[in-house]
Each structure stands twice: as structure tokens, then as C-alpha cells.
């Protein structure tokens, strides 16, 4: 039955067509045009002699960029149509889901969660690649003391931007592609709860990445990615781009987090109780909830930094009564939960992979959930362990030591679940499994060195040295990245219908795995010897360890390039895999490859969890 | 890529789950609104944390005042800005720090109460729509609520305008800077302004949509979604006013 | 098909060997690599690192041993799709409980040790500590000895006397770290932080800035010296006359 309104709206959509032409190009054009416009207006109305002038103008420019980008990609069409009551028809919905548009839909504001998943794979690669180039510049500079590969100012700027790019890359590395592509299908749903918000979260990330990459072009920063006050005040306009990139990014994650939680809580098909949900879905939901808690602090602290720079507030300026410690507290209130937002999806994917590849159920599903929930809950209470040496609240040192050391208990449970799953399994040694074993090796080192740092007397020695850097690189590179690559190798056949090249994948694995040990074990040595972090040069004491570290970095780089080659080559030339190459039970393997537009002709009814491995599955 | 070509509906709505009843969609959207409100609540608590932290740091209990103001911190050293004010040290030539008397809550309460009232107007409108199914009345009430919000925005701007600044000399030129207290007031009222702008947008949307038939008697729960957020913004204003007033009264 | 219930002695042996390896690395590694200890704080920190390494060694060894055993005995051979594992265990309450208990006990032990070490570090400054004011700025440290009006770019300390540092910064946050004495704290603008230690060895030590403070952060390094109490008094006197 069509009402007059639906008819009118349908006519408006078919006749209009402008909205349907929007894509990445119009977004870039919109962003640049409005950035210029905002800059021009600010420049016209503001007093050029005021000390905040350049920051105000720059901040206006960044607002213009994101507004124009959203306008250009079509993100504002939804609110606009809501305002005037012109709701989407079903035909509109199908159009925006990319029906019949072929490859073009990947460049557009497409609401199909599978398209968004692939777009996130691309964004992860872009961010990892950009961060990786900066990492190689940093390590090349540090190969010998007193090197001049890049000048010092440039080097110092690379340090912060490398950090932020990699943090963004890892936040989305597993959650972006797979919480989008796979989770709705795993739940037995046709799409995410809010498909248009899904497209919004992806394209907002693209807009934020544009701002972050621009930091390098406008003079960069000379502080770490934590951009502590008061040194953040000394940075040039690069800091304004940086702060806005983060504020825009938190819009992306907030929207994505709400979407994930609502999808899992309200879109499960009949029979799919929470107890029958795949563990990866649980992990995605817990990570999303934790992110919802943590990221508001991030946008607030960056907004306050921006306000200090543009309107002369004194949140963090001592002369006006502010304090850098406030910045540090707000930052780390976000910063510690955030590392678990990064870790949990990777661990969830690895639980899934361990089960499928060992041909047996996830060991103690309840323990896995308890571990993830406990980790997320405790992570809210540990933030000041990043501030043990700031001099802030020495009396709180003991309590924060307690909460931080307690976190090792749920973390240890992850090992129990994985070990229990592979115990007496019939382990299929394919690419995903290989990266899983690499993760096990690296995550032990990551976890144990974290416990060192949680102890205040040890932290008094190691804080601010590359020991800390080596610890969190074992977490991010050794553990999270390994989980992300395992997830990629595991679900790649579902996206493309082909296996990721096994040989190239193994070569890449050995280069990266050995590279990680060479790079970061040598970095631990530098840390023990006493080399502070974020140093553009260093004393002769540390020269051998740094040389070895750089060699390791080149190994990692080679391995990642081989992996990139494998991803690109296998997309069209890989060995065909069929719809269920791993003979697994979860719903994503039950649909064709690639999955049809709305995943299921008829929504399935579930009677058991996906961890019952039976003989007939092998033969199917 | 295959697409389901079956008919979208048959007489009993058996279409493999393509068309969902409005109540299902509403339940999902309500969860989303509550999650968004939770995130907003975290932001509010971070703002209030900032306020209380800076207040504690600056004052040992009282905001800056010319008279009887504690100028020595708990560790026995003078506050840096006070030293600078007294003897032109800390590397700043000719510093002049004008200390402000403690600010009253000012228009905070007026703004918060007006916002809450406009939210109650929306609530009443929603109840009316649910009962009488009269979209036209609902539309008019939505305009009333929007007008209230615009008035509230005006008062918020007035409040922001009245936040005092101090003068600090940097590099031989006198420039304005806001004290820590003023900074927190600015960001709290600024955040309120942003929320009010969103409410104004939502109000206009409700008014237009109901006039054009997109919100009808049967789809009344769209109004509820907006009302949830609207009333939350009012409540958050009340919370912020209560916290700032209480701490300034008891301490 | 995996053989039913094969012996697990391999795991125990690997665990033992790797634990021994870890313990040996723990006992000899840190003290050889780390800067020469010149205070009780540093000695305690190094000891704590050794204890933590020794405690962690069996945990890491156990996980690695099981993984190695899995790679050797539980991997599917052949190109066909592996059949479901013979062992389809989903729960093992005794194992889970034991694991949680063991990891809690280990955590409590580490926590108690850590809190103990912390309280020793924070322990009394004695009746007459030497007070040194430290000022950090981009990109150097200045040390002044109140009571003698001496200001110096280098830090000289007497052996055996507790020194209490009062630390502040002029421009941005810096990190004051005496690499040989296991003490570190930030130098902040607008406030003063405190740490104390007692040098117990003669010789030079390194002070390095550990908080990224701008362009020349990597060069904000200086050395100091611990001398005998007499030499220190002489040095202080000579500095006063210069000033």
C-alpha cells in the first residue's frame, strides 16, 4: 500500500539523481571547497595580530573540511531527509545498499555492511601503510647514532604521527572489516542495525584520516602522540589538525559502537540466544561497549587542548590556574580502556580461529566471556599507571598498582581458553593457524613485560624508556597485528571466494615473526641499558641494540609488503575456496560466497551453537 | 550477486523477514538512543570531573577571589600565578593578573530549567499524539518546544558572554586569557549550546514531519525517541547546575 | 586421528628446560644490562626485576611447552580436511578454577612484593637530607643547593647521605631520571615534585630526560658525580665563592 507521501518521496528520489552521484571524489571536492571557504571567512573576520589567529583559522578550516566532506559523500542527506519528512522507500534502501552498481558502490556511501567491511580493509591498509612508512623513517634514522636521514624537527614530528596513525589503524584493524562484514551474518541478520550509520562511521574515518595525514604537511608536532600539556601549546598548526582528527574520529567510533551493540542485541535471528552466539560476536560487542565508555574522554581532552590554543582558556596552562595533570588524567582515562578496545576483537577472532582450525569447541565459552568482560571492567580502573612518574597523587600509586596487577588474571584466562581449545585438537596448519601460534608466543612476552611496568619501583626505572615502547609493540605488532592478519587469512575466502596465497602468506609470516623478535627483543635490551624513548639520537651505549632493532624493522617491512602482495594477487588469482573452505559451522560459512545483498533468502532458525564438529561437516 | 526477487509482502507479511513491524524497529532505535545518552553522560561526567579537578587544584576549596584568598598551596609553595602577579617573575614581563570574585551559577539554572520545560512540552505532545492521534496538535507543540529552545540558546550565549577573563602579559603584549574556572564554565555552557542546537534541529524536524504525515498516530514512537534525548539534555543541565552550585555552597 | 591420550611427559620436560632458561636469564640478564647500581633504590629495582622474571618463567615456559607439543603431536598430517578432534571437551571446571587460583596467588605475591618495595623506597628521608632544587627547561637541567646559594649545571652528591630533590620546570613537562639510582619523576610547570634516594657508590651517573620535551629532547642528558662527603663539602664551598 502506498500513501501519498511514499509516492511523492519515490518520485523525488528517482527524478533527483544528484544524491545518487555522490562518491569519494565529490567528498574530497566538498571537503577542500568548504575548508577553503571556512579558512577564507575566518581569515576575513579575525584579527591577524591576535596570538590565537593561526590556530583559530586552522580550526575553522578543519571544521570546513569535515562538513564539506560529509556533504560531498552524502552523509548529510539522511538528516536532511529526516528533517523534511522525506523518508526512504524500500527502493531507496536497496539503491543505497549498492544494488546493481558493481564495483562503483565501493566508492560511494553504501549501506551494505559487506561493502563497508571491504572499505575498512582498504582503510586499515592505508593507515598501516602510512604509519609503517613513518616507522621505517624512524628506524632508519636510528640505525646509527648521529644519523641525519631526516632532520631532527621532521623526525620528532614523525614520532607522534606514526603513533596516532597506528593507533587508529589498530582500532579498526579487526573491528572495522570483520565486525562489519561477518558479525551481522553470524547473528543471522540481513545487515547491521543501522546501515546508514555504518556508512557514516566508515566515511567519517576517511575524513579523519585526511586530517591526520595533513599534519605532516603543515609542520607536524614535536611531542608524542599523547600530546601532553603544556608542550602541546608549543606545536604549530599541525596540532590543530591532530586534535580535530581525533574529535572527528571519535564520532566514527561512537556511531560504530552503537551500531555493533544494537545489532548484536536486537538483530539475532530466531533461536540465536546469547549462549549460541559465536565468541567473536561477544568480543566485538564488549569492545564496542568499552569504546563507548572511553572515547568521549578523548574528544573532550582534545577539544580542551584546542580551546587552550584558540580561545585562550587555561585548562592545561599553569599561568591561568590549569594543570597538565588534568590533561594526562583525561587522556589516560581513555587511553587504557582503548588498548583493550583494540585487543578484544583480535582475541575474539583468534578464539574463533583456534576452534575451527583445531576442529573442536572453544574451550570454556563461559571463561572466555568472563575473561573479556573482566578485562573490560577492570580496564576502567587502571589508568593512572601511565602516570606513576608524573608526581601526581603519590598516595594513589598503591591502589593503581593493585588494579593493574589484577588485570593479569583475566588476561591469563585468554591463554587458558586458547590452550584449552588447541589441546588434543586435530590442528589444521593453514595460514590462520600459523599466525595464531605466533600470537601465543608474542602475547606472553607482551603480558609479562606489562606486569613489570605495573610495579612502581620497576616503572621508576623503565618509564619513558624504550622498554615501554618494546612492551606495547609486542602488544600491538606482536599480538594485535598477528590477530588481525589471522582474521584476514581466515575470512578472506568469504569475501573473495579465494584463499589468501599460502606460500606468500608463510613467507610473510616468518619475515614478520622473526622480524618482531629481532626488532623488539633488541629494543628491550636498549631499554634495560637505559635508552629513553622518542629520542632522535642516542649515545654510543645503545648503538648495537639500535642497529639490530633497525634490521628487524626492515624484516617486518619486507614481510608486510609480501603480505600486501598476497592480498592483492589472491583477490583475483588466488586458489578458489568455495563457500565453506574451513568446514566451519557459524552462519557466515553457510551463505554463498560472496554473500548475496541481504545475506539470507529466508532467515535461518538456530538450534545449537556453532561449535559442534561432526563427521558430515568434513564431507560437505 | 543474487537478489531476492520474491514479492515484498504477501497478505500475511511473510516475506522472509524483509519487512519488519514498526515496533521492532522502534525497540532497536530506542536502544541506540539510550546508548548514545550513556556516551553523552560519560562526556558530562568528564566535564564535571574537569570542573571539580581544576577547582580543587586552584583553590584548596574556593574559586579565585580578591579577598581572603588562599595563595599558598598544600605543599607550602605559593601558586605560580600568584607569584607572577606579585613580583613579575616566572619569565613574564609586567604580568597583571586580575582575579575574579567567585561567579554565581548565574543563568545556569534558568537555562537548565527552560531546557527541561521544553522537554516536558515534547513529552506532553508525545502523550497527546499517542492518545488522540492528532498530528497537527503535535506539530504545533513541537514548534513551541523549539521556540523555547531558541530562547534558551539566547540565554546560554548571554551566560557565555559574561564569563570574565584575566589579563596576562605574554611577550610584552597584553592578552586575554581565561582562568581555569572560567574555562570550565565556558566548556560546560558551550557543550550545552551544542546540545541545544541539536534539540532545535530535532524540534523542527518533528514539527515538519508530523505536518507532512511522516509521523502519524501509529508512528507516535518516533516522537518518543526524540523525547528521550530531549529530556536527557534537560536533566544533564540540572545535574551540571546542581553540582556546580552545591560545591560552591558547601566548600 | 590423534592417538588417544598419548604421554604428556614431553610437555613437562620442555616446561622444565624453558623455566631453567628463563630463571638463568632473569638472574644474570638485568644486572648485566642495566646501568651500574649506585643506590639502594636501584638495587631493589634490579632485585624486583629478577624476582618477577623468575616468577614469570614457569608461566611462559608452560604455555610455550604446550604450544610446541601441539605443533609436534596434534597437527593434522595430510592434504585432506581434518576430521573433528577426538577430544571435544567444552568445560573442565577443576582446570579453570585451579588456573584462576594459581594466577591470583601469583598476582598477590607480585603485588605484595611490589608494595613492599614501594614502601621501602618511600621510606624515611632521615633527619637531615641534603635538599637539591632541580629546574628543568628546554633543554638543560639546573641544580641549586639551598642554604648555600650554589647553582650548577652539574649535579654533585655526597656518598651515603640521603638527598631529597625538589623538582620543577620552566616551560614544558620534563622527566628527571637518574638512570643509576632508580628514581624518576616529572618536572612540571607551576608545581614542585619530590623524590629522594641515597647514593651508595662513588663515580659518575647519567641524568636523562624521559618526557618528550621538544626539539632537543634527545640531547637533554647530563652526567653527575657522587663523591665522598669531604670532597662534596669542598666542592660546595668552592662553588659558593665563585657565585
Describe, in plain words, how this protein is organized in 3D.
The complex is a heterotrimer of chains A (620), B (251) and C (243). Chain A is mainly α. Mean pLDDT of chain A is 92; it is low at 1-16. The radius of gyration of chain A is 25 Å and the shape is globular. Chain A is built from 22 helices and no strands. In chain A, α13 crosses α19 (466-496). Chain A has one domain (114-619): Up-down Bundle (Cytochrome C Oxidase, Chain A), CATH 1.20.210. Chain B is mainly alpha-helical and 251 residues long. Chain B has helices at residues 22-59, 80-87, 108-132, 135-161, 180-211, 221-250, and strands at 166-170, 173-177. A two-stranded antiparallel ribbon of chain B has the order 1-2. In chain B, a hairpin with a 2-residue loop joins β1 (166-170) and β2 (173-177). The termini of chain B are far apart. With 243 residues, chain C is an alpha+beta fold. Chain C has two domains: 9-74 and 99-121; 130-242, Cupredoxins -  blue copper proteins (Immunoglobulin-like, Sandwich), CATH 2.60.40.420. Helix content of chain C is 42%, strand content 23%. Chain C is built from four helices and ten strands; from the N terminus they run αααββββββββββα. In chain C, strands 3-2-1-5-8 form a five-stranded mixed β-sheet. The radius of gyration of chain C is 26 Å and the shape is elongated. In chain C, 37% of the residues are buried. Chains in contact: A-B, A-C, B-C.
Amino acid at each position: 500500500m502506498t500513501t501519498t507521501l511514499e509516492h511523492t518521496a519515490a518520485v523525488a528520489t528517482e527524478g533527483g539523481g544528484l544524491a545518487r552521484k555522490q562518491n569519494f571524489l565529490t567528498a574530497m571536492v566538498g571537503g577542500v571547497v568548504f575548508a577553503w571557504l571556512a579558512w577564507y571567512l575566518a581569515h576575513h573576520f579575525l584579527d591577524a595580530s591576535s596570538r590565537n589567529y593561526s590556530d583559530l583559522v586552522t580550526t575553522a578550516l578543519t571544521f570546513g573540511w569535515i562538513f564539506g566532506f560529509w556533504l560531498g559523500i552524502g552523509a548529510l542527506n539522511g538528516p536532511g531527509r529526516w528533517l523534511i519528512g522525506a523518508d526512504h522507500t524500500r527502493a531507496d534502501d536497496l539503491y543505497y545498499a549498492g544494488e546493481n552498481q558493481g564495483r562503483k558502490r565501493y566508492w560511494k556511501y553504501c549501506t551494505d555492511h559487506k561493502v563497508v567491511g571491504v572499505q575498512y580493509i582498504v582503510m586499515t591498509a592505508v593507515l598501516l601503510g602510512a604509519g609503517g612508512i613513518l616507522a621505517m623513517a624512524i628506524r632508519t634514522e636510528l640505525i646509527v647514532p648521529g644519523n641525519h636521514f631526516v632532520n631532527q624537527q621532521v623526525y620528532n614530528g614523525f614520532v607522534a604521527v606514526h603513533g596516532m596513525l597506528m593507533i587508529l589503524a589498530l582500532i579498526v584493524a579487526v573491528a572495522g572489516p570483520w565486525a562489519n562484514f561477518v558479525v551481522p551474518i553470524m547473528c543471522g541478520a540481513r545487515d547491521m542495525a543501522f546501515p546508514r550509520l555504518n556508512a557514516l562511521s566508515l566515511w567519517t574515518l576517511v575524513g579523519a584520516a585526511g586530517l591526520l595525514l595533513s599534519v605532516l604537511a603543515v609542520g607536524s608536532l614535536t611531542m608524542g602522540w599523547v600530546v601532553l600539556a603544556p608542550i602541546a601549546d608549543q606545536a604549530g598548526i599541525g596540532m590543530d589538525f591532530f586534535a580535530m582528527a581525533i574529535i572527528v574520529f571519535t564520532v566514527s567510533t561512537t556511531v560504530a559502537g552503537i551500531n555493533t551493540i544494537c545489532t548484536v542485541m536486537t538483530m539475532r535471528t530466531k533461536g540465536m540466544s546469547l549462549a549460541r552466539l559465536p565468541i567473536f560476536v561477544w568480543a566485538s560487542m564488549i569492545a564496542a561497549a568499552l569504546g563507548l565508555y572511553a572515547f568521549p574522554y578523548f574528544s573532550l581532552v582534545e577539544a580542551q587542548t584546542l580551546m587552550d590554543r584558540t580561545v585562550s582558556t587555561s585548562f592545561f596552562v599553569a599561568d591561568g590556574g590549569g594543570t597538565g595533570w588534568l590533561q594526562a588524567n583525561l587522556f589516560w582515562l581513555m587511553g587504557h580502556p582503548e588498548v583493550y578496545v583494540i585487543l578484544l576483537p583480535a582475541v575474539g577472532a583468534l578464539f574463533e580461529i583456534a576452534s575451527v582450525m583445531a576442529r573442536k569447541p572453544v574451550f570454556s565459552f563461559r571463561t572466555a566471556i568472563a575473561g573479556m568482560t573482566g578485562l573490560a571492567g577492570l580496564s576502567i580502573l587502571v589508568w593512572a599507571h601511565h602516570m606513576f612518574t608524573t608526581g601526581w597523587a603519590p598516595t594513589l600509586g598503591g591502589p593503581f598498582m593493585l588494579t593493574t596487577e589484577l588485570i593479569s588474571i583475566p588476561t591469563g584466562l585468554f591463554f587458558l581458553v586458547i590452550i584449552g581449545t588447541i589441546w588434543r585438537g586435530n590442528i589444521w596448519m593453514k595460514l590462520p593457524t600459523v599466525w595464531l601460534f605466533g600470537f601465543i608466543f608474542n602475547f606472553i612476552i607482551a603480558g609479562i613485560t606489562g606486569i613489570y611496568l605495573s610495579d612502581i619501583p620497576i616503572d621508576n626505572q623503565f618509564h619513558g624508556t624504550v622498554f615501554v615502547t618494546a612492551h606495547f609493540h609486542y602488544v600491538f605488532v606482536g599480538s594485535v597485528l598477528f590477530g588481525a592478519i589471522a582474521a584476514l587469512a581466515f575470512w578472506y575466502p568469504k569475501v573473495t571466494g579465494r584463499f589468501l596465497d599460502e606460500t606468500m602468506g608463510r613467507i610473510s609470516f616468518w619475515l614478520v615473526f622473526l622480524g618482531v623478535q629481532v626488532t623488539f627483543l633488541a629494543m628491550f635490551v636498549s631499554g634495560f641499558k637505559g635508552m629513553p624513548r622518542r629520542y632522535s639520537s642516542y649515545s654510543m651505549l645503545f648503538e648495537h641494540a639500535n642497529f639490530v632493532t633497525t634490521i628487524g624493522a626492515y624484516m617486518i617491512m619486507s614481510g608486510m609488503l609480501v603480505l600486501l602482495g598476497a592480498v592483492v594477487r589472491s583477490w583475483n588469482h588466488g586458489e578458489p575456496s568455495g563457500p565453506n573452505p574451513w568446514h566451519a559451522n557459524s552462519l557466515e560459512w553457510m551463505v554463498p560466497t560472496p554473500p548475496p545483498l541481504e545475506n539470507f533468502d529466508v532467515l535461518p532458525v538456530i538450534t545449537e551453537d556453532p561449535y559442534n564438529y561432526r563427521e558430515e561437516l568434513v564431507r560437505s | 550477486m543474487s537478489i531476492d526477487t520474491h514479492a515484498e509482502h504477501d497478505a500475511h507479511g511473510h516475506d522472509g523477514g524483509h519487512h519488519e513491524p514498526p515496533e521492532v524497529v522502534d525497540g532497536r532505535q530506542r536502544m541506540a538512543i539510550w546508548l548514545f545518552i550513556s556516551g553523552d553522560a560519560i562526556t558530562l561526567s568528564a566535564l564535571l570531573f574537569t570542573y571539580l579537578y581544576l577547582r580543587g587544584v586552584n583553590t584548596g576549596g574556593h574559586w579565585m577571589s580578591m579577598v581572603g584568598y588562599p595563595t599558598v598551596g598544600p605543599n607550602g609553595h605559593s601558586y605560580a600565578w600568584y607569584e607572577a602577579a606579585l613580583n613579575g617573575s616566572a619569565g613574564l614581563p609586567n604580568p597583571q593578573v586580575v582575579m575574579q570574585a567567585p561567579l554565581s551559577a548565574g543563568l545556569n539554572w534558568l537555562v537548565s530549567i527552560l531546557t527541561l520545560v521544553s522537554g516536558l512540552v515534547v513529552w506532553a505532545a508525545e502523550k497527546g499524539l499517542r492518545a488522540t492521534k492528532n498530528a497537527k496538535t503535535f506539530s504545533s507543540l513541537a514548534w513551541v518546544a523549539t521556540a523555547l529552545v531558541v530562547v534558551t540558546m539566547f540565554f546560554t550565549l548571554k551566560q557565555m558572554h559574561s564569563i570574565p577573563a584575566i589579563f596576562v602579559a605574554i611577550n610584552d603584549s597584553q592578552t586575554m586569557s581565561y582562568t581555569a574556572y572560567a574555562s570550565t564554565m565556558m566548556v560546560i555552557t558551550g557543550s550545552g549550546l551544542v546540545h541545544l542546537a541539536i534539540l532545535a534541529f530535532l524540534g523542527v524536524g518533528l514539527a515538519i514531519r508530523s505536518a507532512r504525515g511522516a509521523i502519524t498516530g501509529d508512528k507516535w514512537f518516533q516522537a518518543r525517541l526524540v523525547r528521550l534525548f530531549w529530556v536527557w539534555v534537560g536533566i544533564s543541565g540540572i545535574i551540571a547546575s546542581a553540582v556546580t552550585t552545591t560545591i560552591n555552597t558547601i566548600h | 586421528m590423534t592417538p588417544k591420550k598419548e604421554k604428556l611427559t614431553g610437555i613437562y620436560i620442555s616446561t622444565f628446560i624453558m623455566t631453567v632458561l628463563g630463571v638463568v636469564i632473569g638472574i644474570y640478564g638485568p644486572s648485566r644490562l642495566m646501568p651500574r647500581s649506585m643506590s639502594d633504590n636501584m638495587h631493589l629495582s634490579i632485585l624486583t626485576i629478577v624476582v618477577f622474571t623468575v616468577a614469570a618463567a614457569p608461566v611462559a615456559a608452560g604455555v610455550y611447552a604446550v604450544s610446541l607439543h601441539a605443533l609436534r603431536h596434534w597437527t593434522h598430517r595430510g592434504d585432506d580436511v581434518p576430521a573433528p578432534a577426538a577430544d571435544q571437551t567444552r568445560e573442565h571446571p577443576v582446570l579453570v578454577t585451579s588456573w584462576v587460583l594459581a594466577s591470583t596467588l601469583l598476582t598477590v605475591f607480585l603485588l605484595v612484593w611490589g608494595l613492599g618495595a614501594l614502601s621501602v623506597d618511600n621510606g624515611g628521608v632521615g633527619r637531615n637530607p641534603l635538599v637539591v632544587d632541580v629546574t628543568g627547561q628546554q633543554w638543560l637541567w639546573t641544580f641549586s643547593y639551598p642554604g648555600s646559594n650554589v647553582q650548577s649545571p652539574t649535579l654533585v652528591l655526597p656518598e651515603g647521605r640521603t638527598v631529597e630533590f625538589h623538582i620543577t620546570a620552566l616551560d614544558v613537562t620534563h622527566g628527571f631520571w637518574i638512570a643509576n639510582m632508580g628514581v624518576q619523576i616529572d618536572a612540571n610547570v607551576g608545581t614542585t615534585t619530590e623524590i629522594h634516594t641515597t647514593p651508595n657508590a662513588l663515580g659518575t651517573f647519567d641524568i636523562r630526560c624521559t618526557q618528550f620535551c621538544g626539539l632537543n629532547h634527545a640531547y637533554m642528558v647530563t652526567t653527575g658525580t657522587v663523591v665522598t662527603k669531604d670532597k662534596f663539602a669542598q666542592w660546595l664551598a668552592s662553588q659558593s665563592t665563585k657565585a
